[in-house]
Amino acid sequence: MAYDLEEQEKLDAIKAWWARYGTLVVTLAAAVALAWGGWWGWKAYQAHRANQAMGYFEALEDAARLGGADSAVRIKTAAATLREEYPATGYATRGALVAAQALQAQKDDAGAREQLEWLAGQGKNPSMQAVARLRLAGMMLDQKQYDAALAQLNNPPPAFAALYADRRGDILAAQGKREEARAAWQSAIDGLGTTNPLTQVVQLKLDALSGA
């Protein structure tokens, strides 16, 4: 009999606890299940978006590699789709860089510059942004837009400081500012170090400037 009473007390305690907290437990369990399902749903959606973006990027690469009469149109269309519909993916920035290089090779400087200008404004991807600014400065140098080119090289990221200094030297030399060009190239050499193959190239430019 004592055993039955003890068991009954336990059952009564469980019932009382469930009556008080049962709704909360069920609600929390449902919330956890929904959150878990939502997280996996979001992951699946992101994977789907990434696969779509990859398809456009591969189409862009194919158009750049194979060329053809309408390749510039296909390159621009794929790059625009990546920028507008998949801006959060890495394919958008990579696509802009590939498109710029391909369009410049096709002598479509305006199209290439548009790609680089967009990429130069993407602060969320500092490495790609830095590459775009460097290439954009080179294009502006070729077009003799010296002040605009130099403006692209302001506040260089530390990892790109030497490369930016080299490009700055190119621009200053084109302007006839020999001493400023010399200082920029020397800064590039100091930043690159003796083991970097590019150091020899910069040194040749510095030697040529001294010889001139």
UniProtKB/TrEMBL annotation:
Membrane-spanning segments: 21-42
Record localization: Cell membrane
Family annotation (InterPro entries): SecYEG/CpoB_TPR, TPR-like_helical_dom_sf, YfgM
Protein keywords: Cell membrane, Chaperone, Membrane, Transmembrane, Transmembrane helix
Membrane topology (UniProt): Single-pass type II membrane protein
Main location: membrane
Pfam families attached to this UniProt entry: TPR_21
Domain Ancillary SecYEG translocon subunit/Cell division coordinator CpoB TPR: 15-210
GO CC field: plasma membrane
GO molecular function, a single term: protein-containing complex binding
Superkingdom of the source species: Bacteria
Family, as annotated: Belongs to the YfgM family.
Protein name: Ancillary SecYEG translocon subunit
Protein's organism: Achromobacter veterisilvae
